[in-house]
Specification:
- This protein has 20 helices and twelve strands.
- By secondary structure, the protein is α/β, with parallel strands linked by helices.
- The chain folds into three domains: about 1-315, ABC transporter type 1, transmembrane domain (ABC transporter transmembrane region fold); about 325-410 and about 495-605, P-loop containing nucleotide triphosphate hydrolases (Rossmann fold), CATH 3.40.50; about 415-490, Rossmann fold.
- The strands form three sheets. Strands 6-9-10-3-11-12 form a six-stranded mixed sheet. The protein has a four-stranded antiparallel sheet with strand order 2-1-4-5, with no helix packed on it. Strands 7-8 form a two-stranded antiparallel ribbon.
- A hairpin with a 2-residue loop joins strand 4 and strand 5.
- The radius of gyration is 36 Å and the shape is elongated.
């Protein structure tokens, strides 16, 4: 219950509506408790004495009490739902806002399926408890206490009968609560797994079909679905045992009242009306306890869900701005790595980068080459602080990145990743994602520089073309060029291209590189470029090429320097380009030819 109590702070802004709901609840309970007393009056004073007036007047009062109870119940439900929905809205917003502060390291620990479950099913569980708290959970104890008081007033002897059953009920409730909560934690974990499998399958459905793995995915989903069903059956089985047991206890209480009350009535010590009223009050006292017992399962589920929600809300972002962090206003774009070491959290401390040192001067193009797993992407992810260095430091214009306000740092860094992620909306919306206020001319100029304008303007709707889910209606190269245009539009001082032209043909790539060179030559928008590439033709003309090997810089220099001094670079170069008509010389000549062609045509700057 600790987690639920913590989560109730989100209901504090709605104290007024909650108070109104509780006042209406008290009115409803008072009206309900009045009815058995009025029944006793009809029987003992009206029917027993043949007084029709008492029967009619008391009956009308009972009808009024019933109508009042119904009106109070409607008002209580209205305000309870408002509070519950508002509470869920605020928790969902807090959860989403928290996830937006996460660094990549945090997102590595929580899968998409887990976050979806916490944002939907877990919040729904806690929302139901808030609404029930303003209705059933509050009504039941008030109702039970009021009924016991009224039963004691009506017949102290019969009230003692009820006291015998209270310890039995409490023991049953405690035993049930201890067993049900761990089961609900397992249910939510199984739901996490189900959502993860479902999300992976829907995101990769084209790969599934391409490799004819539908049967495998069906079996994987069925396994997760069966696990969830099994745990839910265990919970329902336990709940199914509790409710009949509680009903048995209630019926035994009624039998006890009839037994002892009937004997007292035969002896003339108790009126029949009091027996009827006592049975009603007994039902009013024990039935709410049954309701509370039935609520133990949802309460346990909500507590487990609240705990899982706080796993997200309580986790600290792995990367954050310092309290007095410096804003980066007009950086020049000089980036320096000084003895940088890096290891992914939870990876057993295995270093991904070791003792990496180099300088990228403003306006330079730094290319990064290396085998798969050499640490290329890890290195460039440190520049916008997607992760923090484990040792050493990275500076921009001499300022340690950890001393720079995070938002201002990333505002000056443009990133285009190999896996180009597009959002639902138009092509224009995606290009202008980092600058929603950009003009149409600026969007068009960015698309032109990214070599995307031609195919975009070939669509009937041009820039207003709506892309499919994650951009699936576009080719891989088209998505990558839109992602590059998005990065260019923010006019970054540091531009990171993480193998972002892998799906682009060589001619388009050369045109793109030429457009980026034009961009850098514009003194108003000098940009330092970091290019991660698998294709060596992408980096031949870079100002500086870093060759990574097992997380270390094996060599650093220009293309000509590395051909002479680095066996690793020379091996990559020869394996990819080799000799012949598509050899290194012809590749360089082709790049130079295309550049001269573009120079004669003119170009667009962003």
């Amino acid at each position: 219950m600790k987690s639920i109590r913590r989560l109730l702070r989100f209901a504090k802004p709605y104290r007024r509506q909650s108070a109104i709901a509780l006042i209406l609840l008290l009115g409803m309970v008072f009206a309900d408790l009045l009815i058995p007393r009025l029944s006793q009056r009809i029987i003992d004073q009206g029917i027993a004495n043949g007084d029709v007036r008492v029967v009619w007047t008391t009956g009308l009062i009972m009808l009024g009490a019933a109508l009042l109870s119904a009106l109070f119940a409607l008002g209580n439900n209205y305000f309870s739902v408002r509070v519950g929905q508002s509470f869920a809205h605020d928790v969902r917003s807090a959860l989403f806002h928290k996830v937006q502060t996460y660094a990549f390291a945090n997102l590595d620990e929580l899968s998409t399926g887990q976050l979806i479950t916490r944002s939907t099913s877990d919040i729904h569980m806690t929302q139901m408890i808030v609404m029930m708290g303003l209705r059933i959970l509050t009504r039941a104890p008030i109702w039970a206490i009021g009924a016991m008081v009224m039963l004691a007033i009506t017949s102290p002897t019969l009230a003692l009968v009820m006291l015998v059953f209270i310890p039995v009920i409490l023991v049953l409730v405690l035993l049930f609560a201890r067993r049900i909560r761990p089961l609900y934690e397992l249910v939510q974990q199984k739901l996490d797994r189900l959502n993860t499998v479902l999300q992976e399958n829907l995101a990769g459905v084209r790969v599934v079909k391409a490799f004819v793995r539908e049967r495998h995915e069906i079996e994987r989903f069925d396994g997760a679905n069966t696990d969830l069903m099994t745990k839910n059956i265990q919970v329902m089985r336990l709940t199914a045992i509790l409710l009949p047991t509680m009903t048995l206890v209630l019926n035994l209480g009624v039998i006890g009242v009839l037994w002892f009350g009937g004997q007292a009535a035969l002896d003339g010590a108790l009126e029949v009306g009091k027996i009827v009223a006592s049975i009603s009050y007994l039902m009013f006292a024990l039935f709410p306890v049954m309701m509370l017992a039935a609520m133990i399962a949802p309460i346990a589920a909500a507590d487990a869900s609240a705990k899982r929600i706080f796993e997200v809300l309580d986790s600290e972002p792995a990367v954050r701005s310092k309290p007095n962090a410096q804003r980066l206003e007009t950086p020049r774009g000089r980036v320096e790595f000084a003895e940088v070491g890096f290891a992914y959290p939870g990876n057993g401390g295995a270093a991904v980068l070791c003792d990496v040192s180099f300088v990228a001067e403003p306006g330079q193009t730094v290319a990064i080459l290396g085998a798969t797993g050499s640490g290329k992407s890890s290195l460039i992810h440190l520049i916008p602080r997607f992760y923090d260095v484990s040792s050493g430091s990275i500076t921009i214009d001499g300022i340690d990145l950890r001393d720079v306000e995070l938002g201002s740092l990333r505002a000056h860094v443009g990133v285009a990743l190999q896996e180009a992620v597009l959002f639902a909306g138009t092509i224009r919306d995606n290009i202008a994602y980092g600058r929603p206020d950009a003009t149409d001319d600026e969007v068009r100029a960015a698309a032109t520089a990214a070599q995307a304008a031609e195919f975009i303007e070939g669509f009937p709707e041009a820039y207003q073309t709506v892309v499919g889910q994650r951009g699936v209606t576009l080719s891989g190269g088209q998505r990558q060029r839109i992602a590059i245009a998005r990065a260019l539009l923010v006019r970054p001082k540091v531009l990171i291209l993480d193998d972002s032209t892998s799906a682009v043909d060589i001619e388009t790539e050369v045109r793109l590189q030429d457009a980026l060179d034009r961009l850098i030559q514009d003194s108003a928008h000098t940009t330092t470029r970091f290019i991660v590439a698998q294709r060596i033709s992408t980096v031949l003309l870079a100002d500086k090429i870093l060759v990574l090997d097992n997380g270390r810089i094996e060599a650093c220099g220009t293309h000509d320097e590395l051909l002479k001094t680095s066996p690793v670079y020379r091996e990559i170069y020869e394996s990819q380009l080799g000799d012949g008509p598509r050899g290194p010389l012809s590749a360089i000549q082709e790049a130079g030819f295309l550049k001269s062609e573009l120079a004669s045509e003119g170009g667009l700057d962003v």
